[in-house]
Fold:
Amino acid sequence: MNNIDEPVFELEFEKNDIISSKNPELAQRIMQLVSGQPFAVLCTQGESQPYASLIAYAFTDDLKRFYFSTPVATRKYHLLIHCKRVALMIDNRCQHPDDMTRIEAITVTGRAEHIESGDAYQDGKDLLKMRHSYLRQFVDAESTALFKIDVVRYFHVTQFQGVSQWIP
Structure:
């Protein structure tokens, strides 16, 4: 599965700017950022067009999986069913409006899957409702679909140019 989202680098220097890491400190920074932000921008594509959506998410403790819900009668649902490759963007810009050098962001790449039953379905719903209790009725509605994202990698960016890669 690791090949599904290999980034395409146009310029050689971009490859060299990414530091690949199994560093536990990096994993801890990513966990703090993911835990501290309730929403992410979900990036999808379809019909040769990119599309971005704001989602409320939950995640597993090992950072290998994210969950979110969306109504079935939406463009987001349709795009996810037809193209499973997605990215999430999570950042802390609201916490540092006066100091852009302190902003951190991660891009999470992976594969989204609509799940309808089984342990992953119940676990995902439970995590989502625990993290976002105000969404209980929405998550449980028959017109709402649950998706999981199996994470392939994280790109962590600090100070605009410090890019590190972490694979859970």
User: Anything to note?
Assistant: Residues 8-17 have pLDDT under 50 and may be disordered. The first strand starts at residue 18 and ends at 21. The two ends are 13 Å apart (CA to CA).
